[in-house]
Amino acid sequence: MSENRAESTPPHTVRGTTDGTTVVTLYGEIDLASAVPLESRLDALASEPHPDLVLDLRPVSFIDCAGLGVLCRTRKRVRARSGRLRLVADSGGFLRVLHIAGLGGVFEVHPHLPCPGPNGSAWHRDPVPGGPSTGPPSTSVGVVPGLPPST
Fold it and tell me: What homologous superfamily is domain 12-122 in, according to CATH?
């Protein structure tokens, strides 16, 4: 039986680096079909010493366990190179998925991209809903169960 499923390559945009930070915006679905090419791209970005990656997940409409695996692998590779990985997500649904998967406190999550500041770039100070502040300007997510899904 053949399936007429189009090959899924995750659309993403690399916005370039600002003060050594590479911002990657991901779009659409991150699933089993799109995980491999995305993983290859993120591996390449995380291959430099001290990588500083920001993954903007706000335009992502769906993520499954393969997509979460890509995020975890990227985090592991970045940390092995003494780097930093930040996720940008404002969806209660995505935050709930992280919590259910046991990843609620694993990633540094922000609700917005960094905005220009006196030292190059600064994070908005408003916390992710349900996330305890670890001190300005970043926030680690401690997801509160029962957050309503975003529409």
Answer: STAS domain (3.30.750.24)
Give the tens place of pLDDT for each residue, 82-108.
999 999 999 999 999 999 999 999 999
SS3 of residue 55 by DSSP: strand
∠99-102-104 over CA atoms, to 5°?
45
The helix or strand, by DSSP H or E, that contains position 16, with its residue range, turns out to be: strand 12-18
Domain residue spans of the chain: 12-122
Which phi and psi angles does 43 have, rounded to 5°? -60, -45
Distance of CA 90 to the CA centre of its chain: 11
Which has more confidence, 72 or 148?
72
Question: Could you tell me if 110 and 76 are in contact, meaning their C-beta atoms sit under 8 angstroms apart?
Answer: no
